[in-house]
Amino acid sequence: MDPQHHQPNEDKNGGANGNLLCRQTSTRWNPTTDQIRILKELYYIKGVRSPNGAEIQQISARLRKYGKIEGKNVFYWFQNHKARERQKKSLTKDGHMHRRTACNPVDYYSYKYSNRSSYASSSAKTGAVTVGHTDSLGYASVTIQDKNSCDCSAPADGRNGAARGQMTNIKYGSGADIKSQSSSYAVSGHEQEAAANIETLP
Amino acid sequence: MDPQHHQPNEDKNGGANGNLLCRQTSTRWNPTTDQIRILKELYYIKGVRSPNGAEIQQISARLRKYGKIEGKNVFYWFQNHKARERQKKSLTKDGHMHRRTACNPVDYYSYKYSNRSSYASSSAKTGAVTVGHTDSLGYASVTIQDKNSCDCSAPADGRNGAARGQMTNIKYGSGADIKSQSSSYAVSGHEQEAAANIETLP
DNA sequence: ACGATATGAATGAATG
DNA sequence: CATTCATTCATATCGT
Fold first, then answer.
1. Which of A70, A102, B133, B180 is the most buried (most CB within 10 A)?
2. Where along chain A do its domains lie?
């Protein structure tokens, strides 16, 4: 993860688009380095995590100066960035660096990506209480995922109660609102160039 | 999901379940194409948005012929579908003042059919409407809202938390469950409603 | 070339 | 309902 993977040539429509190979229905947004820079700045410096519709449009508009972009791209970017940061943290904090090249029992699927989901049925998950993580909104979910899965077969067979309603309600009383570690970064005012180089941030 | 997105392993053994690799194949519901088709049909053509408990059961029962499914899946599907349709609108507010130097055969960029309350024309009955393509978040809803027969939509949308409460808690008791009151839906043999090209709907 | 990885996109499931 | 989390699919890109 050190090597700042990805980061195509600086050329990618650098400026305000203009020429982007008319015809390449890449369908997939490919952020420019400037866009990435700004997004990370917003994420790490401003602390933006889950911008709402208005914010997204605002950000989107701003990034549009650096290349084609839509609101959904911004939305997904933050969504993914947060999720992956957490995932990474969760995995790292798990105590061991989980080396995928060995702990993969069987890949009962020809999934070419049998990685990153290696902790699926391990101990990491399973009713783990995930808490504490900086967040602009300061909330934390307690994911008490229990739900005895392992019920393969005979799914809708016996008209089980599921059909009648009641869907696994995990009614844990206290909502657990740990909002420690408030993200009080640079509330002083100017933080524009405060952070040295965002490029090297995670 | 226009191109060929998503559509994992063809586990979608059309309803006859039979065997599904009792391998904890993800505890999460994986709708079959037929189920999706019907759901979209209900959503776009019938105008179903927030089915109540009884309706959910009916729909669920009907979809069960095409694969394992539970009431909560139907419930969530409608929830999500509606929510996302809205969200897209929220994120798509961006003015598309982009230009393309006249080299744009396929428009991977021409969605945006912002309608919403745009009572589709005057006499475009027959509910069979087909919107062109519709890229991911691009979105394009049909808003037929015709239902000139068989009113399957929620009754006044009474917001009676029935569905929710019933699903979220195990209190579906208190009598009066959803019996098998021959509903309005023709839960009969085959489907294949000759509707529109729902597959291409958002 | 291929495989691993990073990351955009999509969507089921929850929670508030 | 809106917001968020978790998982998974799809694909661009890079290392060997």
1. A70
2. 35-92
